[in-house]
Design the sequence.
């Protein structure tokens, strides 16, 4: 039969007295109390005042953002690979021609508008992985908030603001300047 | 003895001032802040931070909570007995506040005794009134017309009959030793001749004092445990018992009515602490007879009076922290265990303790 016989432990008389356990319990609680008061116990981070920023690993996947290179050129060439690979279809790119008198006229295209819907984004990092231009990166921004759906859509300006300038990347277009 | 009809306006005004000063300016804020203390101390024991958002270190949290309770919807379910349902929260809160009438919270201030009613039956008055608060719980459970509250209230009444006898019997050795039921004179006696639990000065610094401290200590243990049961605190919070009974007797209550139950528990805790301090830890007196007045009628300087009031509330606060601390040390008793503890152990021990005190008093006459 599938029965389990639970053996009740036979208590000694002092264990039945309840007092040793009581004193033991008092000892445990006072130890925790004193340790917390003297700051020896790690407690919750006080979030809005203390931020995660210093504790994030280098590979942390936060908000995706566009970057510019050393010459302030926007690296994105509007190839739309990220738009196609994005699993939740958060990215919408409107490409445009680069004017022929521009210094970077030989570069294929540039995005006129680049929108990432941060309500949809799942921070998977596929856009960063697929990008042939090293133009989009998942940065360490994690506090993405807004009071409306429209506010949660990051436009090109916002994306460059988060991304900033990134140096030390491959600059294959420099030869065609 | 003064005639009963000698109530004049001056004494009425003084009594009113004392009532307002003690109940509304001291006890009520203490109730609010013991909730805060409970949450912070519990948090520290459980390696957490606790409420620290509203005001510095969360000190305004009680105000925020009170405001929240007032603004919440006061929902009365359709299946309750309205009259009793409304009566029950008041019945738990008011007895707790009434009992503070006989507690001497200071020696004298401006020539007035720092006690609202200087009754000669202090502890009896406290027990008589404090037992009424169980009616609030029983009524709440009955009027809620719902299973969990009903279980809670039935447990509460079974709990009451188990500990009340031990509670009453536990202080008899003390009354035998002092021959006194007036709490003011009891404290005065302790101020001059050593606290009941600390017989280290005055007359009690003798073999008799030391020997009599043994039954007093046993009394203290039984009394404190019974006070825990009286205030429905862990390890005896069987009527509430949220793991088994949702929220026990106040499951059907919301908003300020729930808050009244909640605050009533803390008020009872403060009064219970006050009584324990008065009976066993010398009330408002300082240790080793410092600043002790000659007698209950002797005038004391203003600053002595203030120090005495401070001493009383300091002791009460320490006792409240003890209450909170014990809450996280012990698991809840099963109700048959509580009844066994009350009837089989504490009742007998309290009786034996009385006999022991009588024998000791006869030997060390």
Sequence:
């Amino acid at each position: 039969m599938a029965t389990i016989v639970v053996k009740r432990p036979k208590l000694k008389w002092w264990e039945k007295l309840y007092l040793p356990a009581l004193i033991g319990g008092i000892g445990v609680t006072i130890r925790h109390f004193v340790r917390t008061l003297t700051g020896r116990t790690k407690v919750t981070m006080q979030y809005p005042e203390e931020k995660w920023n210093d504790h994030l690993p280098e590979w942390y996947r936060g908000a995706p953002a566009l970057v510019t290179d050393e010459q302030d050129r926007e690296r994105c060439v509007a190839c739309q690979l990220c738009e196609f690979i994005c699993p939740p279809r958060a990215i919408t790119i409107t490409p445009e021609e680069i004017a022929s008198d521009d210094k970077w006229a030989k570069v294929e295209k540039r995005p006129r508008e680049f929108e990432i819907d941060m309500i949809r984004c799942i921070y998977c990092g596929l856009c960063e992985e697929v990008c042939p231009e090293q133009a989009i990166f998942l940065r360490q921004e994690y506090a993405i908030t807004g009071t409306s759906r429209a506010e949660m859509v990051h436009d090109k300006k916002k994306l460059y603001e988060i991304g900033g300038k990134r140096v030390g990347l491959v600059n294959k277009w420099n030869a065609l300047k | 003895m003064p005639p009963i009809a000698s109530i004049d306006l001056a004494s009425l005004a003084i009594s009113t001032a004392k009532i307002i000063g003690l109940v509304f300016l001291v006890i009520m804020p203490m109730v609010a802040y013991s909730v805060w203390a409970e949450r912070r101390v519990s948090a520290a024991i459980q390696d957490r931070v606790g409420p620290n958002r509203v005001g510095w270190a969360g000190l305004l949290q009680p105000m925020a909570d009170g405001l929240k309770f007032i603004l919440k919807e006061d929902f009365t379910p359709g299946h309750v007995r309205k009259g009793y349902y409304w009566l029950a929260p008041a019945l738990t809160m008011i007895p707790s506040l009434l009992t503070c009438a006989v507690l001497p919270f200071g020696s004298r201030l401006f020539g007035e005794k720092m006690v609202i009613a200087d009754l000669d039956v202090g502890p009896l008055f406290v027990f008589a009134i404090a037992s009424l608060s169980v009616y609030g719980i029983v009524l709440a459970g009955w009027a809620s017309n719902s299973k969990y509250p009903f279980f809670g209230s039935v447990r509460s009444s079974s709990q009451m009959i188990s500990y009340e006898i031990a509670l009453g019997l536990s202080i008899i050795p003390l009354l035998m030793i002092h021959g006194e039921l007036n709490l003011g004179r009891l404290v005065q006696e302790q101020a001059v001749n050593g606290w009941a639990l600390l017989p280290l000065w005055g007359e009690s610094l003798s073999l008799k004092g030391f020997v009599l401290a043994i039954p007093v200590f046993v009394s203290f243990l039984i009394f404190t445990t019974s006070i825990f049961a009286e205030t429905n605190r862990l390890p005896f919070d069987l009527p509430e018992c949220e793991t088994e009974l949702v929220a026990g007797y106040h499951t059907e209550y919301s908003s300020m009515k729930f808050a009244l139950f909640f605050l009533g528990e803390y008020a009872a805790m403060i009064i219970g602490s006050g009584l324990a301090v008065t009976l066993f830890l010398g009330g408002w007196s300082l240790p080793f007879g410092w600043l002790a007045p000659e007698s209950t009628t002797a005038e004391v300087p203003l600053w002595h009076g203030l120090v005495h009031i401070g001493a009383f509330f300091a002791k009460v606060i320490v006792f409240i922290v003890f209450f909170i601390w014990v809450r996280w040390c012990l698991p809840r008793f099963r109700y048959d265990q509580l009844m066994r503890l009350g009837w089989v152990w504490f009742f007998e021990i309290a009786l034996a303790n009385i006999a022991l005190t009588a024998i000791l008093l006869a030997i060390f006459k």
Remarks:
- Residues 21-46+76-363 of chain B form one domain.
